[in-house]
Design a protein that fits this description.
This protein has 281 residues and is of the alpha+beta class. The chain has five helices and 14 strands.
């Protein structure tokens, strides 16, 4: 019993939230740029997204947190309309379990009905102002939350950290302190196979949206494509282990593309803002 109470107390400290607190605004900012090596073309994009995080209760298993989209509900679009609010159990090891799945499924079914879609269309891609997947799996809510990356497993110097979307992993290094918080850093080379897989998936999505088909001789391996460069990840964490900021920076050269070689850069910054200091509009 005493061990359970100690673990619960440690969880509350590591989470940075206790039941009844107002919570945080999680802010995600991104910038991307693609430059053709030939100098003939360039494109860029950027934007900001936010997620509100509010503690509901502390239990023997972990911390119950509600995630919601801040601002005007009428401005919420796409899958976010049915995915949120979501109540999630966050365990001490960073693993998560969805707590209001039946409620989310009911919202999903209503969303599909109002859009005039059937469940047979789940998983398909369409184009509105950007490419959008018709997502229907309630567990995809957890993937959406994980995308903010501010409640991973406990982090410390020497921790093995993985970033599956980039196909990299490595040991976190101690880079001193900043703003009174410890800085952890990881640098790893770009994984060429991950880039090939992403290019193949992009071709499939474009073909689906346009109503076309991939050429018969098209292969998903993309063996002619190569990539080199560096991916850097930096965390700012407090004494309790709570992540306050996460920055991902990518610089790569991709060769062997039909459209020509490309230099690509991307920066994603995720920041935790106390509710009292945040703009939820």
């Amino acid at each position: 019993m005493f061990r359970s109470l100690a673990a619960l107390a440690a969880l509350g400290a590591a989470s940075g939230l206790t039941a009844g607190e107002q919570g945080y605004l999680l802010q995600y900012e991104y910038e991307t740029s693609t430059q053709e090596v030939s100098g003939h073309g360039q494109s860029s994009s950027g934007g900001t997204q936010s997620l509100a995080e509010h503690a509901i209760a502390t239990t023997a298993e972990g911390l119950e947190i509600e995630y919601s989209i801040p601002g005007d509900p009428d401005e919420v679009r796409g899958n976010d309309m049915w995915m949120y609010p979501a109540r999630v159990l966050v365990r001490p090891d960073g693993s998560k379990r969805l707590l209001n799945e039946s409620e989310i499924i009911a919202r999903r079914d209503l969303w599909l009905d109002e859009a005039g879609w059937t469940k047979e269309q789940c998983g398909r891609w369409l184009f509105t102002w950007t490419a959008v997947k018709i997502e229907c799996d309630p567990q995809a809510v957890l993937e959406s939350i994980e995308g903010y990356g501010l409640r991973p497993a406990p982090l410390r110097p020497g921790t093995q950290f993985e970033l599956p979307e980039y196909g990299i992993s490595g040991l976190l290094e101690d880079r001193g302190t900043r703003n009174g918080r410890q800085v952890l850093f990881l640098s790893a080379p770009v994984d060429p196979q991950t880039v090939r897989d992403q290019e193949a998936r992009t071709r499939e999505i474009v073909a689906e949206i346009s109503g076309g088909t991939l050429p018969v001789d098209d292969t998903s391996s993309g063996s002619e494509i190569d990539a080199s460069g560096t991916i850097e990840i930096e965390f700012e964490i407090d004494e309790a282990g709570l992540v306050w900021k996460k920055t991902e920076t990518v610089e790569m050269l991709v060769t062997g593309l039909d459209r020509g070689d490309e230099e690509r850069t991307a920066k994603r910054t995720l920041t935790r803002i106390p509710a009292a200091e945040a703009d939820f509009e």
